[in-house]
């Protein structure tokens, strides 16, 4: 162990965020961002239909291993530095400040895009559910605005309040899926766990393993947000790594078991055909068949609350990227101000809320369909943006440890494996962008170039800051200078 280096941190007008988050609370926020029941009902049937089919459970195992490999380097970095900047901070230390500025801008756009999928999804599915259940006709935009305002209020207040709300919402959605799983196992017995789907021949030859892995890895979106809460924990160098490993493991096991039991319920030979026909109603139909219509109704409502929980978690993640960009002068400084009483990025939260409200207004004014236009486009844009951040973070983590000369062979090997895997995922997403979004449109298919343009602007802006505003440039990722040598 080498002595800790004392380095000077430039003062900012913002201060640090405050909170008493623990490992379980951060884990809940991370898992909630992944929207488990939304994945169960939405992504897994898609993987059954056009992905890896009956071998989807195996795809989740592989995806979990890949992300655990990524988590090795991620955890090693979080033990050395902590900040609300997350990947932005890591990329600054590993790849340099201009790439970090690019990462900051991409993160803000990507997380806002993923949040908007929840905003539009809540409006769309909420209006459909209220109509089918109670016969109420409610415009989707009304429900979306209510959700945005509620989440904005919770994001403005103490982070612990949001964490408690997420504990309740996440527990409800997980409980409903577990009840369904138990009902299927109770009726099917050992047949609910077909072992044949794990044979190497079936894993490779059933459906498209590449698309299956893409869908599986996309189901974990949000797991990387643990580092964003480093300033709001008592001991971030222990809490963040633990929360990361715990969340990846919990998500992997949950998706693996639920998809495996679903395959057993439908039958390995029939999964692809049934899911192709039923898609998003697949799991609800399983509930009707193996549990009860009452559970199905509750599942439908928890699907809605799952989107709300995900929106709250993503709101908190996104406004922390906004907050840090403001605190360090990449955006107007007033955005990076901490609330004096709540210790939260309150102004960044207000900006995030305003962006969501404007998006709803624009969608309504433009006659856009909340699902076919907003959800599809924002899903593709946000997902690709987050995966690109993960890829850049892998490169940065490897570069950081190599440059420091640390002999962390296992960490570097795991990070390299994660980098290769995430590179392949980026290729899969870009190649199958219309499959991911569910539509084929020249405008939507061009969205990946939006991220390229944003990253390019970020790099140019970072270079411009170095020349024209050296004090701001010197302050980029300054919290990273408070690092510990292990």
TrEMBL record:
Keywords: Cell membrane, Membrane, Transmembrane, Transmembrane helix. The chain crosses the membrane at residues 26-50, 56-77, 98-125, 137-156, 165-186, 206-230, 242-263, 289-314, 350-368, 374-401, 408-430, 446-464. It comes from the Bacteria. Coiled coil: none annotated. The keyword Ligase does not apply. It holds the Pfam family AA_permease_2. GO terms for molecular function: transmembrane transporter activity. It is found in: Cell membrane. GO terms for cellular component: plasma membrane. It is a multi-pass membrane protein. This is Putative amino acid transporter.
């Amino acid at each position: 162990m080498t002595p800790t280096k004392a380095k000077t941190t430039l003062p900012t007008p913002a201060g640090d965020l405050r909170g008493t988050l623990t490992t379980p609370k951060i884990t809940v926020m991370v898992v909630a961002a992944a929207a488990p029941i939304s994945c169960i009902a939405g992504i897994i049937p898609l993987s059954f239909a056009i992905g890896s089919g009956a071998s989807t459970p195996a795809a989740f195992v592989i995806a979990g291993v890949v992300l655990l490999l990524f988590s090795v380097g991620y955890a090693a970095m979080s033990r050395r530095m902590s900040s609300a900047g997350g990947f932005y901070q890591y990329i600054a230390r590993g790849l340099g400040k201009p790439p970090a500025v690019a990462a900051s801008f991409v993160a803000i756009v990507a997380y806002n895009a993923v949040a908007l999928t929840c905003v539009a999804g809540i409006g769309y599915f909420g209006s459909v559910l209220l109509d089918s259940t109670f016969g109420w006709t409610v415009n989707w935009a009304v429900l979306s605005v209510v959700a945005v305002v509620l989440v904005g209020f919770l994001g403005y207040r103490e982070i612990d309040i949001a964490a408690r709300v997420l504990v309740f919402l996440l527990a409800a959605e997980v409980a409903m899926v577990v009840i369904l799983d138990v009902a299927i196992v109770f009726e099917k017995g050992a047949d609910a766990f077909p072992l044949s789907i794990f044979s190497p021949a079936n894993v490779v030859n059933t459906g498209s393993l590449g698309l299956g892995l893409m869908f599986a890895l996309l189901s974990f979106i949000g797991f990387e947000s643990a580092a964003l809460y480093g300033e709001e924990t008592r001991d971030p160098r222990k809490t963040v790594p633990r929360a990361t490993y715990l969340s990846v493991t919990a998500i992997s096991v949950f998706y693996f078991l639920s998809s495996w039991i679903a395959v057993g319920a439908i039958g390995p030979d029939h999964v692809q055909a049934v899911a192709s026909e039923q898609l998003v109603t697949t799991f609800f139909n399983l509930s009707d068949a193996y549990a009860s219509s009452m559970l199905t109704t509750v599942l439908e409502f928890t699907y809605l609350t799952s989107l709300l929980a995900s929106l709250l978690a993503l709101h908190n993640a996104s406004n922390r990227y906004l907050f840090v960009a403001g605190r360090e002068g990449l955006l107007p400084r007033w955005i990076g101000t901490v609330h004096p009483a709540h210790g939260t990025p309150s102004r960044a939260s207000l900006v995030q809320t305003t962006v969501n409200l404007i998006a709803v207004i624009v969608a309504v004014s433009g006659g856009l369909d909340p699902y076919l236009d907003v959800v599809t486009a924002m899903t593709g844009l946000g997902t690709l943006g987050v995966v690109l951040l993960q890829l850049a973070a892998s490169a940065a983590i490897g570069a950081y440890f190599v440059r420091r000369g640390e002999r962390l062979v296992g960490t570097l090997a795991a990070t390299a494996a994660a980098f290769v895997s995430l590179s392949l995922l980026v290729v899969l997403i870009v190649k199958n962008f219309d499959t991911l979004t569910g539509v084929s449109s020249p405008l939507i298919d061009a969205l990946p170039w939006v991220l390229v343009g944003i990253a390019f602007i970020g790099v140019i802006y970072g270079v411009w800051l170095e020349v024209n505003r050296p004090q701001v440039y010197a302050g980029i990722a300054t919290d990273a200078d408070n690092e510990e040598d292990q």
